[in-house]
Amino acid sequence: MSADTDSVPEYAPDVMGLDHTTVTGWGRTAPTAARLIRPRSYEEAAAAVRDCGERGGIPRGLGRAYGDAAQNAGGAVLDMTGLDRVHAIDADGGTVLCDAGVSLHRLMEVLLPLGWFVPVTPGTRYVTVGGAIGADIHGKNHHVSGSFARHVLALELLTADGEIHTVIPGTPLFDATAGGMGLTGVILTATIRLQPVETSLMSVDTERATDLDDLMARLAATDHRYRYSVAWIDLLARGAATGRAVLTRGDHAPLDALPARLRRDALSFRTSRLPSAPAVLPEGLLSRTTVGLFNELWYRKAPRSRTGRLQRISAFFHPLDGVPHWNRVYGRGGFVQYQFVVGYGQEDALRRIVRRISERRCPSFLAVLKRFGESDPGWLSFPVPGWTLALDIPAGLPGLGAFLDELDEEVAAAGGRVYLAKDARLRPELLPAMYPRLDDFRALRAELDPHGVFVSDLARRLHL
Fold it and tell me: How would you class 426 by CB atoms within 10 Å of its CB: exposed for 0-12, middle for 13-18, buried for 19 or more?
């Protein structure tokens, strides 16, 4: 049995209830009931699409969308993790052809020993290839490599009419599907261009920034030297320390950077796992006091400056994957992950938002700031050139909805947008300003799927 199959009990879609029909996102904020279908062949996938019923269906991977993007109240949810074959690897040319239900974890297991790595990975490797394309995920290397769909050479898409189309970059259907949140059809396979590596270790530089301006200056001045760059930011710090951060950058370590004892097994993929978070945790565990203490300790323990530390890929990219079901830490009420981007030249807007979050004393210990590079072609793709901030907030925080609505207004006024794959509460009237190609997406979707076969809670809420 493969390690990917072994991981299914921990990382299968978050499906709850005695009849296994209550489905929620990773934030666990808005569960809805749906009929779960798990096709194991392309023919079964086509039959599932035909059998969605009046409320339609939506494809779903490993359930790591934070909000309601992979839910469908009263309809069908197509769990695509049963289609998980790696069909072909071109070890010379650096490409892989695989099913959409294959996880990035499985690809790393298969590809790293051959000297290849996935071109883009988010903060978890338990994402399917189909989900990576549907959300057009980004990672710590967007300023260099762009989003995931930029590395997709072709995909096979099962549309509402039951036909399977080969879709290539540069076509309207590709641009609507990349970031289209599963609303153009079911991705069955994808051919992906890979990143060559010499080892499975990272060479990592770490430094502390004293405040937000110091952080932005360091990122702007030196990001071009690194393939991967991210900053953890303390959003409870106030006054002169507002926006203080720990900045972590790195690249794949070359073979000659490894000590002799590590060179013999330089491409092995090793992960670590801690005990799973308990199913039930005390409410209020993540208070301003406890998170403030954590943030203080995290900032103080970080080195002022350290270069060249060797770190496993799993530790550098996916530290939270070592704690199965870490989303339970937020309690029964779940959490909201709020991520937005504002363009270069809108630094004052970023400063105002960070200051407002700090003054509001939002208890967030998972907050990161990154810089995006060029925009990606997807009509609903999130990244645009600029600054992106993501933070987790307990959903039960009093007044949170109204506060985030105000932040949405400020983001939209600055020409920015929020990330649909993480959204659970955006008001639909702000969407056109955030996503200028929205009308194109709606028009193509209406032409491709006139009867609304593909639909989700997110699509209904935002009138996609």
Answer: buried
DSSP state string for 151-198: GEEEEEEE-TTS-EEEE-TTSHHHHHHTTSTT-S-EEEEEEEE-EE-S
How many of the other CB atoms lie within 10 Å of CB of 54? 8
- Number of helical H runs and strand E runs in the chain: 16, 21
- Classify residue 9 as exposed, middle or buried by CB count within 10 Å of its CB (0-12, 13-18, 19+): exposed
- Token representation of residue 53: 């019923």
What does residue 130 show for φ and ψ, rounded to 5 degrees?
A: -60, -40
- Checking if the pLDDT of 386 tops 80, the result is yes
- Report the predicted TM-score, pTM, of the whole model to 2 decimal places: 0.93
Closest to 124 in 3D by CA, of 136, 114, 137: 137
Both tokens of 126, joined, read 């338990």
What count of other Cβ atoms lies within 10 Å of the Cβ of residue 461? 18
The answer on pLDDT for 280 being more than 70 is: no
Q: Which of 375, 315, 311 is nearest to 341 (CA)?
A: 375
Give the pLDDT of residue 5.
33
Give the per-residue pLDDT at 289: 81
Is residue 410 left, alpha or beta, with left meaning phi > 0 and alpha meaning psi from -120 to 50? alpha
Residue 278 pLDDT level (bands cut at 50, 70, 90): low
Residue that has been written with the tokens 């309601």 in this structure: 68
Geometric angle at alpha carbon 307, from 368 and 119, rounded to 5°: 55
Cβ–Cβ under 8 Å, residues 383 and 341:
yes
